Amino acid sequence: MVSRCDYALVAEAVASLYRAAGVCAPGAGWGAGGPGLPAFQRWSGISPARFLRSLSEDLPRPSMARPAASLAGDGRGPLLVRDLFISLECLEPGADLARTGMRSLDWAMLATPVGRALFAQVDGRLAALAFQPGGNDAAAVAALGRRWPGFRLRESAAALIPYRDDLADRLRGRIRRPLALTLRGTHFQLRVWEALLRIPEGLTMTCRELAESLGGGATARAVGAIARRNPIACLIPSHRLVRDGADPRADARARPPEPVLLALEDARTGR
Hints:
CATH superfamily of the domain at 69-242: Winged helix-like DNA-binding domain superfamily/Winged helix DNA-binding domain
Largest sheet: 4 strands, mixed
CATH architecture of the domain at 69-242: Orthogonal Bundle
CATH class of the domain at 69-242: Mainly Alpha
Helix content: 25-40%
């Protein structure tokens, strides 16, 4: 078992394996590596060699070539994705202004097994999760404030640590408790983010396939742009969405830690 204080050590091991696989240039913000391989294996249950192979090889990855109609939500929430134990609340612009008890937004920058990340929660729901490979914390917090105008930002590690620990468990395939998320966006943005939640682990979709599943004239370009603005990384799995004709691993390499997330899924599912 890996304690919370070891998450940074695991992240260093992930960084060293990431560089060893040749998918990250020096100085790209993934840490200095370190002696954390035993901690990585205790946390993930995956041998470093198996994980390195998943990182290094451009493995063919199954695609949801014919998306199910159920992939397209209505963007109006609440939505319960039962297999993930995720309850999703969707807020369109201005929808929350008349509500009470939502004026403070707690945030914290915390270590996770795949790198430092900004977490935020409002009204007992996770509202933001953004990895920070470059370490520009001030810019990340400023962007959070722009996404949630009218809310008072309050730094509180204690409020966000349970969400960080839930993420660490889910990254290794363990779901211990239901997780409540809240998303704020236009109706179409909310539909795209809902649909991403329905892409199973171990599968990918192209932007065109997802656009076709949504209907209503949605385009692959629009879907891809919205996925890149995913406010809750990893838990809303935009890393499983790839450009048409692109290799999933290669397509993710420009967006740390997406190749790490794909490799963890590949290694855990035995592909």
